[in-house]
């Protein structure tokens, strides 16, 4: 709600993101409550997309791009490529096909010819309860493969997610869905 009030008060070329250590009023799809214990990477990002662009004409793809960006944020780090993170349609981040460790919620408003999009995303980084977290997966991988990969921080993964998302949006704007679908399917649970 904070970003929703601020996003129209800033110059359009200025980025806006809110990062939370803990969230007490999280929302999921369909009005579900989103639980956010300590150890999660939690943020809301504001982006603007022109209506008459490739992505503007296919705005529901945003949730898929963000889910893919979260997975890529980890799996694009050298040495972390085989950490078993996946995307589950339409907006979930999964450990293998076994359990959800994160999700994405997108709200958009069309004003004149620009979509103003609020992207909320959260994923378990360093909290083993109530399910599993990314650093548990890294520790498991280290035990099984004899590696010494370092745990990742929520701040690092939020920053990497935003950077990867920016690249995915650029690819989508240039090439349309076919520019990103091969990568999405590579990590798709289904």
UniProtKB/TrEMBL annotation:
Highest taxon, organism lineage: Eukaryota
InterPro entries linked: aa-tRNA-synth_II/BPL/LPL, Biotin_CoA_COase_ligase, BPL_LPL_catalytic
Any GO CC annotation of this UniProt entry: cytoplasm
Pfam family, one: BPL_LplA_LipB
BPL/LPL catalytic domain mapped to chain residues: 1-173
Keyword Protein biosynthesis (UniProt): no
GO molecular function: biotin--[biotin carboxyl-carrier protein] ligase activity
Keywords tagged on the record: Ligase
Alphabetical list of NCBIfam families matching this protein: birA_ligase (TIGR00121)
PANTHER family per the UniProt record, alphabetical: BIOTIN PROTEIN LIGASE, BIOTIN--PROTEIN LIGASE
Family of this protein: Belongs to the biotin--protein ligase family.
Record protein name field: BPL1 ligase
Organism this protein belongs to: Prunella himalayana
Gene: Hlcs_1
């Amino acid at each position: 709600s904070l970003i929703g009030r601020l996003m129209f008060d800033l110059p359009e070329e200025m980025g806006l993101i809110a990062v939370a250590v803990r969230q007490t009023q999280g929302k999921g799809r369909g009005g579900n409550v989103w639980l956010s214990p300590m150890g999660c990477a939690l943020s809301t990002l504001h982006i603007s997309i022109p209506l008459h662009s490739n992505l503007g004409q296919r705005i529901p793809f945003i949730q898929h791009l963000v889910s893919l960006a979260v997975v890529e944020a980890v799996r694009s780090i050298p040495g972390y490529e085989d950490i078993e993170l996946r995307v589950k349609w339409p907006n979930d981040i999964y450990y293998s096909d076994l359990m959800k460790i994160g999700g994405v919620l997108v709200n958009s408003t069309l004003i004149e010819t620009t979509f103003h999009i609020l992207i909320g995303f959260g994923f378990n980084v360093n909290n083993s309860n109530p399910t599993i977290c990314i650093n548990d997966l890294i520790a498991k991988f280290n035990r099984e493969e004899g590696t010494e990969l370092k745990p990742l921080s929520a701040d690092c993964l939020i920053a990497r997610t935003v950077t990867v998302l920016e690249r995915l949006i650029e690819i989508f704007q240039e090439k349309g869905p076919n520019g990103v679908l091969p990568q999405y399917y590579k990590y798709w649970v289904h």
